[in-house]
Amino acid sequence: KQEVTQIPAALSVPEGENLVLNCSFTDSAIYNLQWFRQDPGKGLTSLLLIQSSQREQTSGRLNASLDKSSGRSTLYIAASQPGDSATYLCAVHGATAGNKLTFGGGTRVLVKP
Amino acid sequence: DAGITQSPRHKVTETGTPVTLRCHQTENHRYMYWYRQDPGHGLRLIHYSYGVKDTDKGEVSDGYSVSRSKTEDFLLTLESATSSQTSVYFCAISESSITGELFFGEGSRLTVL
To answer: Does residue B66 have a pLDDT over 70?
Structure first.
């Protein structure tokens, strides 16, 4: 059974510092990995989708890497801003979950001005 | 933003009453999903649909039924609501269930008294 873990559960950084968010998964047989952002009381917003054949994906200040062999993905957010405060979730699409997404528990981020 | 509308956004009901949540999409995506999000459990898949009248169970389907009579609408029904079904329910859509990016609605907060 695929398990997805995000450590730490919460993170606080001063504005301007780079954010590094971790996601690990137990089964490397994945199709892709997706990073989401969730603001309080809101739905999930897709940030990046990395296919299993890719090593990284970039969008603006966001960069996500994927290392299937070690079962890890990292989301980097450069020059953090207070508006980046949110919960970040990763999810993997894999055959062991019937091709459906398995979510991590999320990392709650606070960027202090 | 993906065109996904969930209704109602908030509902309070009593134990034993039927409840129907609606998800409407304007993207013409083939796949639609219902998730619930609870503290300590994260996001869990209830049911999903891979086409009109084609649905299947997720990991927490007991007590829930779904219907999809049109591409754009996916209904989630609680035949007899229980307090354990108090949760935030999210609808999601994707073009492809395996490699496609998932897009989420804003959520429906259900309280069962």
So the answer is: yes
